[in-house]
Amino acid sequence: MVPLSYNLRSLAVRKTTTLATALGIALVVFVLASVLMLSNGIRGTLERAGSEDVAIVLRKGSDTEMSSGIEDANVGVVASAKEVKRRGDGQPDAVGEVVVVVALDKKGTEGVSNVTVRGVPDDVFAFRPEARIVAGRAARPGGAEVVIGKGVRGNFKGVELGQSFELRKNRPVQVVGVFEANGSSYESEAWGDLNAVRTAFGREEMVSSIRVRLESPAKLDAFAVGVEQNKQLGLEVMREAEYLEKQSEGTAIFIQAMGTVIAVLFSIGAMIGAMITMYAAVAHRRREIGTLRALGFSRASILFSFIVESVLLALGGGLVGAGASLLMTFARFSTMNFTSWSEISFSFDATPGIIGGSLAFAAAMGLLGGLLPAVRAARMPPVQAMRA
Amino acid sequence: MTLFGLALRNLRRNRFRAILTALGVAVAILTFVLLRTVIWAWNVAAEYAAKDRIATRHKVSFVIQLPKRYIDDVRAIKGVKAATWANWFGAKDPKDPNNFFANMAVDPASFLEVYDEIVLPPQQKRAWLENRRGAIVGDVLARKMGVKIGDRVTLLGTIYAGDWPFEIVGIYSAARKSIDRSQFLFHWEYMNESMPERRRDLIGWIVARIDDPGRGADISAKIDSVFDVRDAQTITMSERSLQLSFMAMFSAMLRALDIVSIIILVIMMMILGNTIAMGVRERTGEYGVLRAVGFLPRHIATFIVGESIALGLVGGVLGIAISYPIVELGIGRFLEENMGSFFPYFRVDPKVAGAALLLSGLLGAAAAILPARGAARLSVIDSLRRVE
Amino acid sequence: MAQANGESIVELRAVTRTFFRDKEAIPVLDALDLAVPRGAFEALMGPSGSGKSTLLHLVAGLDRPTRGSVRVAGDELTSMSDAALARFRARTVGFIFQAYNLLPVLTAVENVELPLLLTSLPKAERRRRAQTALRVVGLEDRESHYPRQLSGGQEQRVAIARAIVNAPAILLGDEPTGDLDRPSADDVLAVLEKLNKELGKTILMVTHDPAAAERASIIRRLDKGALKS
User: Fold this and answer.
1) Contact yes or no for B13 and C105 at CB 8 A
2) What confidence tens digit (pLDDT) does each residue in B132-141 have?
């Protein structure tokens, strides 16, 4: 076999060409890894909010909490089902909430965007133990106070600790605290008092959804049958995780589809770049190839050597690109979620799978780009090659 | 033969490499055109928005409805020529629940007056006005749903629970690119009369046509001031501002696409620059000969830059040529059918194609700057030595 | 008919050319004087490294002396700007290389036409002059051949046509027969002789080939940067 150091040195000798090609591949891998990280982040953000043992109840036919409505009287009926877990005080572990959006001035751009406002009961932090106040304090019940998720903090006018925004004319709510919720989509919401929010929005005696914690995840079916069989309620039950997956579907699919198209086109470009470079390398080194063949190296080892060189080149670029993409984990991406019509702030979530996959992708580009040139090198008759 | 002709001749030198490079450029330009078309199409609605239309909605949130009597107040305002209203219905086609399309309850007579770019044959219009269960659909949606005039369609309500039977009485097309041709429109009265008392006579938004587009801001302010003292405040803006604010919600996504479309150009420059640099290195001796017979360094630079521009333009033209069928027959059609509310018109705009062509030439020139400078700076004797 | 009235077309006075490799000075030409009369056919011989090519480069305006004066056809080259030197090369000298150095992407006639692209001559006139030059070297029937379709001797004759197409005052040859076999070399030399005798071109040629030198009217020998004859 031709020693690896021969390939490494050959790459080093043509450093401008090597650099240009590797950087091209680096950019491709950077974009690919970032897209994957973002779509992973979107799923993660939306799905992290879901627990296996929590069921969500919506009006039949409603896809989102926003389009759903349930009369107050029915909340008690649903929560009293025997599959619902009880708290220490014997009360069912359930919350009825109202979900609306308000249009607020977005900072940094002209125009407004929608922020989800969730009207929550007093015991919301007991129901969602993952949520906790990280700045300021919890809102006082019944008052015109809200807490905001750290994902929306500072993104909109008035959505900042100590400031206020209006739910309705002359009905401002004061931001008194900032909460964290395990990086989930709740962090892109503002939580206010249930009654205050629904009064402001003319939704008196209605909630958007009921969430109940089940005694065990396996109890879902029994609970669902119980609720859905009661035709008078007209409600539908879903596992929370499943519901949230549906919420993220549109946006995640859009970004993934876009990302896939971009990645495919980008990689064709980078592959052509690698191919040009490797063809030039082969043409340039005819004499060397002839000499190697004359020294007794086989066609196969020449073939292998050039493929290895190309893969090394691409992997070098891939490492730079994947490394750079890790910097994106410090960035946040705030956009409208197609399904919930409100702004959600996402992070770029890197996983070993994404980084490894991107590197494998780079290697594949090198392999495909280097294959034809390597075949040409291996096919060169030694005598003619040396004469050139 | 001319100086530029000589530059072109050099492209035939390494025909294979030139073809590969042009392909690389073509793929990059294709990607660029696709990305810019997404951004452009996103802007279409705002770009082609009617200048004499203003929309009024609830100040705080689109989920809060307005009292129907507001329409009379708007009509009474001086400068308002006509006004109509609509409600977002949000129902699904039970046969294809994943097919998202806009369905709205409208007042047919005033709606068609305000949106006069909606093209509906007179007898279909008459049929719609007379049939309370009648609905009209856009031609794009009709094709997708496979419905024709006379068909009965039942939608499953989400916000307005229940099954809603309709009869398709018309299929519209649009005289303006900003009109979504995937809408499903039906009588507001039909919906309103089946609502319980407390949800009756509420409308989603009001759209008005004004006499003088130049007075849009004044009239908008006038409308909002009328409702400022009522229990539901409004915000009124031009159709264009409305579209712009809608786009602002996706600003992060658009910015990401913007960045990616620049990255692909950088990759393209690397592929092109690499090829040019290789050619220059191989031909250094010839440049020495040209200098020896009296050509100036700037002539040499012109040859190299000219060659690069030509290569860039060939690739650019190829990329743009490929983009047309891909968009017209593939992506564009798919997006217009499935995401009509985001992309009412998804086609390659001549401006986008023109910019892509210009950029492929300009970046061709830019990619050649470094190699050309290097070749021009070399002394005659040094260049000549490369051959001898 | 050459050697008219003793007027010199090339005049080198006290020309010194020193190259620097790292910090070490390598003198190639040392206070050299040379005068070539108009209409002469001179051969410059000498071992490798004697400075013949450097001397030729100085006369061609491709290189500048470290010290001394180089006058060619009445122009003092040492005081010219780079652009002026390029113009001088385009108008006053024709250069013939050992390796022909034709551009492979151009046909014979296009190669010959190349220096005329720098002039403001109309297209048809350029082509006509290039064809004339090809006729002078006896290759009028090869004008649309590419270099790779020509023999070495033919390529060199195309190169000579390229050198004379702009009607230069002097032709400079750097081993014009160095890469050729005997019969081809003789063809090329015959062309040069004809240019000198019939058209009165001054020719200064560096060569290793005694047979080539014999055709010249004067043979000068260069050794270690100084003229020996």
Assistant:
1) yes
2) 999 999 998 9
